[in-house]
Design goal:
elongated, mainly alpha, 5 helices, single chain
Length: 111
């Protein structure tokens, strides 16, 4: 009886190991055949959307946005452009909200 229990547990462990190896193999195979990079049409539409955003920003908002995109802190931007970090942050937030409304991006998506 003890021998039978040990054999059963060994078989279960074997099955679990094979199952997990199969899952890993399937994941690797899927990763090999799918391209994680976005397709060209998505890249182009994202660039177009960004361009439309930038066109609708006034020069100061565009400068603040560019400096933020470069990784500068709000304090650095405020020191260079004048004003307080909080006022510049709020101005950019309001500008992005305004442009999103203009472009219709704040509408809920129908599923």
């Amino acid at each position: 009886m003890a021998r039978s229990k040990v054999a059963t547990r060994a078989r279960r462990a074997d099955v679990r190991r094979r199952a997990s190896q199969g899952t890993v193999a399937i994941a690797r195979a899927l990763a090999a055949i799918t391209d994680p990079a976005p397709d060209a049409s998505r890249v182009i539409s994202a660039k177009d959307l960004l361009e439309q955003f930038r066109i609708r920003l006034d020069p100061l908002e565009r400068t603040v946005s560019d400096r933020r995109a470069d990784g500068r802190s709000w304090g650095e931007i405020a020191a260079a452009l004048g004003g307080t970090p909080e006022s510049l942050r709020k101005r950019l937030t309001r500008a992005l909200d305004r442009v999103a409304r203009e472009l219709g991006l704040d509408d809920p998506v129908d599923l």
